[in-house]
Write a structure and sequence with these properties.
Layout (H helix, E strand, L loop, with lengths): L1 E4 L12 E4 L4 E3 L7 H8 L5 E3 L5 H4 L2 H8 L2 E4 L8 E2 L5 E4 L2 E7 L8 E5 L2 E5 L2 E2 L9 E2 L9 H14 L6 E4 L5 E2 L9 H13 L9
Parallel strand pairs: 3-4, 4-5, 5-6, 10-13
Antiparallel strand pairs: 1-2, 2-3, 7-8, 8-9, 9-10, 11-12, 13-14
Length: 210
């Protein structure tokens, strides 16, 4: 299955929006890059569903444009006027023919979920590989209204508890995709998340101006 970062090259602030171009094409987050629906159409003729990790503006800014273009179903944990179905913790999903578990991971956002599969995880903003604060295991900011470092720490622990050892790829809402070396010479995805957890547990400001 091909996975395309359809917001790659954006000139405005946006999340990474991932297109899973399988038998039933699916999009994880819509981003806030104008014209993202055209980029999606460059890869697929139809889009079956959009799955939201959470509803911060950089993840949903162009959601209406995507839904209008493709008439796709919308799956989200939090309420949304165009939501087709609600996501719930522990729910099993099929994204483009692959199985994923919905893991409720609040802290960065109250409605945040991660999608955990056998070989990859779509982590939204709860954990990222590199984001300017840390280059090899970082976590979503928790200094704004409605956010909680304590809840985020618990969410990182939850992901680790429910992460299959076979997961080798981390698709985060920001920064680069992380792919572990199949020969085992690099950190595993679990190593990256554990490092993010250790940093979050220090309870120090992520950015100097927090």
């Amino acid at each position: 299955m091909d996975i395309h970062t359809v917001t790659d090259g954006a000139t405005e602030f946006t999340c990474n929006a991932y297109l899973l171009a399988g038998d039933s094409p699916a999009l994880v987050d819509a981003g806030s890059m104008p014209g993202v629906e055209d980029v999606i159409a460059d890869h697929v003729d139809d889009l079956d569903a959009v799955y939201l990790t959470h509803q911060h503006r950089d993840h949903v800014g162009e959601l209406d444009a995507v839904l209008d273009r493709f008439d796709a179903d919308l799956y989200a944990y939090g309420e949304h006027p165009r939501r087709t179905a609600a996501l719930s913790d522990g729910q099993e999903l099929s994204l483009a023919g692959e199985s994923y578990e919905v893991v409720f991971t609040p802290g960065h956002a109250d409605d945040h979920v991660s999608l955990v599969g056998e070989t990859r995880v779509f982590s939204g903003d709860v954990v990222v590989y590199n984001d300017g604060a840390f280059d090899d295991g970082s976590f979503g900011r928790t200094d704004l209204s409605g956010q909680s470092r304590e809840r985020l720490i618990e969410s990182l622990e939850t992901i680790l508890d429910r992460l299959p050892d076979t997961v080798a790829e981390l698709y985060a809402g920001h920064g680069d995709v992380y792919r572990a070396d199949p020969d085992g010479d690099d950190d595993s995805v679990r190593d990256v998340i554990e490092r993010a957890l250790e940093r979050a547990e220090r309870r120090e400001p992520k950015y100097p101006d927090e």
